[in-house]
Amino acid sequence: MWLNNNVTEFVLLGLTQDPVRKKIVFVTFLIFYLGTLIGNLLIIATIKTSQTLGSPMYFFLFHLSLSDTCFATSIATRMIVDALLKNATITFNECIMQVFSFHFFGCLEIFILILMAVDRYVAICKPLRYTTIMNHRVCGVLVAVAWVGSCVHSLTQIFLALSIPFCGPNVIDHYFCDLQPLLKLACADTYVTNLLLVSNSGAICTVSFVMLMVSYVIILYSLRNHSAEGRKKALSTCISHIMVVILFFGPCIFIYTRPATTFSKDKMIAVFYTIGTPLFNPLIYTLRNAEVKNAMRMLWSKKLISDDKR
After folding, report:
1. DSSP per residue, the chain
2. Domains in the chain, number
3. Higher confidence at residue 294 or residue 106?
4. pTM of whole model > 0.90?
5. Whole domain around residue 223: which residue ranges?
């Protein structure tokens, strides 16, 4: 089907076509993206260099920050550049690659969030067996499975995208390539493709969200048997995770679990999980986590000391 397409490039309308508003979009999202990069790369560097952050929770947080960085980069960089252009275009091949990278790192984030919930469940509900169950080898295998699973999901999205025939028009009313806006441009019936999309992306989002919320309800219920200090620490960690889950999954479920209809507010809702969540994650995990903040202070102190010696 790919070779039969008459469309070689798409026009991205972005968030707005107004020249003044496009400048505002450029400045705003450049700041957001730089904040995302600084926050997530700081977490990555802190976990990688700190000897106190060697637990599985921080191993998973490292991969969450890595996926957040790549996830935001796959969308924000082109969005920022396109805001400076009068007519933003993207080639068919680039569009397909963006669909792959967007779904790959988005799905990876979902799987990492599930692994973080599993880690907290074992740590709080089975503390005596925690080090045995969540050892380094098991954590490594789980993360590897998450990466492979994300790749399988993304390849499925690519298969669906390549099965759509395009013969014009080529204007995408969005700021990045995804299957929903692409389905509107198809010159064939897309009912089956949309059904597959909902059963794939929609099911992953909905089932994962339900699993995560149920797991955290169980965790919070089990905290009644812990000491006041242990309950406070575990509660702080779980609340951070729940905030991230709601921020990410709420918009995703709204977008990917409905029929092939698009609304004018879809683009603004997509901003929450494409730009907002990668920016908020480092803030949530650092501001509510004393261990990460202390490790960051130590990393900063070491840097200042090394700079003074020079």
Report:
1. -GGG----EEEE--S---HHHHHHHHHHHHHHHHHHHHHHHHHHHHHHH-SS--SHHHHHHHHHHHHHHHHHHHHHHHHHHHTT-SSEEEEHHHHHHHHHHHHHHHHHHHHHHHHHHHHHHHHHHSGGGHHHHT-HHHHHHHHHHHHHHHHHHHHHHHHHHHTS-B-S--EESSSS--HHHHHTTBSS--HHHHHHHIIIIIHHHHHHHHHHHHHHHHHHHHGGGS-HHHHHHHHHHHHHHHHHHHHHHHHHHHHHSS-S---TTHHHHHHIIIIIHHHHHHHHHHHT-HHHHHHHHHHHHHHHHHHHH-
2. 1
3. 106
4. no
5. 2-309
